[in-house]
Amino acid sequence: MKAAVVTELGAPLEVRDVPVPQPGTGQVLVRLESSGICHTDIHAANGDWPVKPTPPFIPGHEGVGTVEAVGDGVDPALLGTRVAIPWLGHACGECSYCVSGWETLCEQQRNTGYSVDGCYAEHTLADARYTVPVPDAVPSTDAAPLTCAGVTTYKAVKVAGVRSAERVAVFGIGGLGHLALQYARVAGGFTVAVDVEDDKLALARELGADHTVNARTADPVAAIQALGGADVAIATAASPKSFEQAFASLRRGGRLVCVGLPADGVLPIPVFDLVLKGISVVGSIVGTRQDLTEVFALHAAGRTKVIAQARKLDEINESFAEVLSGTVPARLVIEF
Ligand code: NAD
Ligand code: ZN
Ligand code: ZN
């Protein structure tokens, strides 16, 4: 099968032939139809973060495809069904996090396309229990971005506890941000979109953003404070500066949800402001299988729109460059 492989951190990916893997106990073999390109895959290939993946590995954790074979202990009824393969590829199912609805915090977790091979390939293996069924009404090309960008920002809006008529500022209108905006609206919030590219802000307006700010040409903190400040800020851009701006754009009692993962990201927070303004700062990592099921249900009901363009596996390095150049509206999806 064809796969895009990281052979060395920081080097271009190599598209090459590798053997089709065989499902072990509890696993399914999935023939991929669509595989989204998350900015995380670029961080992974570059080794941007403190915990680094070990080459050679196959990135990709927005995989959607059909179950083609099942390993021991897996219900054969899964054969032929369409499933999503998210970042949370496996969790222990028994620890205090797993049993309390926080499987995303499990210390035994395995991460698709990072600690185990992922979805930039014609086939991949997945732990059957951590795949999520894709409803018929959701095409694979939409389901792929929902599998990480969708579930992550849906969870961020949940964690923020967005209430109707609150003002929600979304920093970064890329793959994650364009969906964050929509979930904030589903929750009843008014929205402010912040990006450094005018095209992304035009997209945000099409998706219903109430206000937009170009952080390259204007000060988003001043612009959002002029509106009364944000009740919630969701930081998705891989830029440390935008985290500081997101924090400073909050009104008293505001909540900052940190989602983006910039390389060497440090967020200096003025303790005085944090305390006097009663601000909360929380990190949010992807979402659970239940969250993804809800994301698919919302999409099947027509409540969200995925903005994506198709690419081929052979174009993976050019696609990474496109994402980094800020010209992508809003997600690229490898179609097989
Ligand atoms: P993306 O490249 O599609 O989107 C990033 C957006 O930020 C782009 O639109 C870009 O123009 C914009 N941007 C860049 N600099 C900016 C600035 N200074 N101010 C405002 N906007 C700016 O990336 P993505 O796939 O949406 O991922 C974003 C980040 O989220 C990455 O760091 C990724 O690793 C991380 N991520 C986190 C989780 C999680 O669970 N916490 C899940 C998925 C991705
Ligand atoms: Zn992702
Ligand atoms: Zn666990």
From TrEMBL:
Catalytic activity: a secondary alcohol + NAD(+) = a ketone + NADH + H(+); a primary alcohol + NAD(+) = an aldehyde + NADH + H(+)
Single Gene Ontology MF annotation: alcohol dehydrogenase (NAD+) activity
Cofactor(s) listed: Zn(2+)
One of the Pfam families matching this protein, by short name: ADH_N
Tree of life domain: Bacteria
Keywords linked to the UniProt accession: Metal-binding, Oxidoreductase, Zinc
SMART domains (UniProt xref): PKS_ER
Domain (Enoyl reductase (ER)) ranges: 10-334
EC number: 1.1.1.1
Family indicated by similarity: Belongs to the zinc-containing alcohol dehydrogenase family.
PANTHER family with a match to the protein in the record: ALCOHOL DEHYDROGENASE 1-RELATED, VACUOLAR PROTEIN SORTING-ASSOCIATED PROTEIN 11
Protein name as annotated: alcohol dehydrogenase
